[in-house]
Amino acid sequence: MKRIDNFLNTALLIYIDNPISDAFNYKEEFQELARSANVLVSDTISLSQKNKNISINLYIGQGDAKLIEKQVRRTGIKLIIFNVDLSPSQERNLENLLSARVLDRTGLILDIFSQRAISHEGKLQVELAQLNYLATRLVRGWSHLERQKGGIGLRGPGETQLETDRRLLKARIKTIQKRLNKVSNQRKLSRNLRLKRDISRISIVGYTNAGKSTLFNYLTGMNTLSVNKLFATLDPIHRKIHLKNKKNAVISDTVGFIRNLPHHLIESFKSTLSEVSESNLLIHVIDISDNNFPNYIKEVDSVLRSIGANKIPKILVFNKIDNNYNPENFSHLQQDSSCYVSAKTGYGIDFLKQTISNRLFEKYHAVKIELPSFDNKIRSQIYEKCIDVNETFTKSGQYKMEFLANSHFAKYLNKKGLIDRNTLKKSKNAQEIYKTG
Fold first, then answer.
1. Single pTM value for the model
2. Are residues 181 and 273 in the same domain?
3. Alpha-carbon distance 25 to 292, whole Å?
C-alpha cells in the first residue's frame, strides 16, 4: 500500500470532471479528502472527460498526460493523486510516464482510514481493505522473477516471487477475516444482551463531515474527537443517552459515508456497519449549510440500501443552521420526521431528544391490567420496561395499572394471562395517544 507520509508530501491533484460531478461540486470534496490525508496540495489540474472515451492505457488522453508531465517536471512533484479509480495497469503506466507516485481516489480514502484507525478492530478492517486493494495491484515488476527453489515455509518448487507474494497476501487476508469474525461474534453477544434487556439502539449516520460527532458529544455529554476533516470518526463509539420517562438507549457514532464508497471498505467494515443495520432508529445528520446537501442525502440513502438499513425508522437532522442561517427562521419547520439543530450551539437539541423519544416509543401499546398486591415481580418489571405508568390501589386489594408497553413485553403479559390478544389489537399505540393528547 502506498502510504502517504503525514505532512511530508506535497501532491499535484488531478481532477477529472464530468457533467454529474460538476453539478455536485465534488472538486471541493476531492481537495478536502487530500487535506484530510495531511497532504499539502501544490496545484490542481482540472481535466474534462466530456465526450471522450476513457483511455485503456492511461485513463486520460495523450494531450492531458503531456500537460501533467510538463507540470511535474517544472515543480518536481513526487506524488500525483487522481479523483477517479484507476486500474492497476493505468496506475503503473502513469507512474512510468510521469516518474512519480500515482494514487487514485480509493487509495487516498484507504490512506485516510489507516490514519484514523485506533481500535484493534478498526486497524484489522483497514488492513483487510488495503490488502484486498493491493491484491489487484501485484504485477510482474520484480527484478527477481527467476524460478526459486522450494523451502520449508517459504516457496514451493519453482514458485516465483510474484506467486509467493500472492500466496502470502491470501494467507494474511484469511487470518484477518478469522479475527474479524471473532470480533463480530462478540458484537452479536452484546447485541443479544441489549435485546434481552429491551435496550433501544440508535445510530448516527450521515455524509462525512456533516457534524455527527459534534451532535453525538452534545447528546451524550462526551468529548470524542470532533474536527473539521473528512472521516474524523472511524471506529464506532457507543454511549448511553437519557430519554424521557426515565428510559435510556444506546447511541452510536459511526463512520461517515461518501459518494462511491469503495467496495473494499464496505466489505471490510461489514461488522461495523451491521451496528447500523440492526438499530431501532437512525439519526441522519445533514449539513444544511452545504448547498449540495440534497445530493448527499441521496448518497447516504444509497449506502443504507446497500447494507440493508433503508427500512429502519429515521429522523432527518439538519445541522449547522448557525452557519449563515438564523435559527428562528426554522422554528416553524420542526416536525416529527425532521429537526433543525446546531450541534455547535445546542439549538434544537431538546426538540431532537423529544423527537427521538416519540419515535422510539411510538409503537408502544396502551395496556390496562389488574395485579394482585403480592405480585411484585411483574409490577417491578412494568416500572422497568414500560413508560407512562399510572397506578391505583383498588378496594379489592389489587393494583390497577395503566401504561405503555412495547410489543415484546405485551406478548409476555399475554402469555401470563394478564391481557388477551384481542384487547391488545384494539388498544391505541403511543403515537395515537401523543397525537390526541
1. 0.74
2. no
3. 7
